[in-house]
Amino acid sequence: MYDFTYSKPASLGDAVAALSKDAEAKPLAGGMTYIPVLKQRLAKPSAVVDLSGLGMSGIIIVGGKVKIGAMTTHDTVAKHAGLKAAIPGLAALASGIGDEAVRHRGTIGGSLANNDPAACYPSAVLALGATITTNKRSIAADDFFQGMFTTALEHGEIITEVEFPVPEKAAYEKFKNPASRYAIVGVFVAKFANGARVAVTGASQSGVFRHEGMEKALSANFSPDATKGVTTPADDMNGDIHASAEYRAHLVGVITKRAVAKA
Ligand SMILES: Cc1cc2nc3c(=O)[nH]c(=O)nc-3n(C[C@H](O)[C@H](O)[C@H](O)COP(=O)(O)OP(=O)(O)OC[C@H]3O[C@@H](n4cnc5c(N)ncnc54)[C@H](O)[C@@H]3O)c2cc1C
Fold it and tell me: Does 106 sit in the ligand 1 pocket, CB within 6 Å?
């Protein structure tokens, strides 16, 4: 690790002030990604601002909306009885992230800010049309994800909460890396009164994306058979030791069909 200063502010205002003092300062949530990055000297922040003193944790369900604080751990999301009833697919997604240790430390805000191209949450946030709230503004999911490891967040901007509309049906399915459980291909499908939304993670070089072909087919007929014949071009897919671009493109169809059946 390189040297940096560490602070643990007790208020959002103090955290924002600590981050804005310095262009190289970074927030720390569960540390599941950022601490390994620091240990491997892949980042050289001047200051690390720990968000764990700010609260920002917990789940509220009111008026057809689910609000999840940014510091809520994956384990809390996975086990919350109200969420399991409102959006079971979201709770199930959280229960399948990493292992026990990762689920007890990792947070929804950290996952979204990081926007790892193989992370699970971005697909749920995009497919459910969630809204990301920060200390400055509200950002629609469609505007938030801007390519691998890139989001609409500005320097010093802190995610405080994520708000999800409750769909009629939704589910997440992933073809996972057996070691890390990150998605080789993960698909979140959601059915609303006005149509279906489908978001794919793990597959594309551009990070999470909405699948227009699947959305069109599933908006007309939300059934596993409706996914038949909807193709996914391999051009923009990731290819690595785990799966070629062509295999990932094929998996998108298989995993979407399974997700719809699960929903
Ligand atoms: C072994 C292992 C397996 C994993 N498997 C999976 C998996 O199967 N699926 C999956 O989706 N994920 C997986 N993860 C990722 C993990 O679940 C966390 O979501 C991820 O590490 C980031 O969350 P964190 O709270 O630890 O954030 P941190 O590591 O603390 O931060 C990550 C980044 O987000 C920024 N940040 C954090 N919080 C905020 C905030 N509120 N506002 C603005 N910026 C913020 C930080 O500055 C940093 O740049 C895995 C991680 C590990 C180590």
Answer: yes
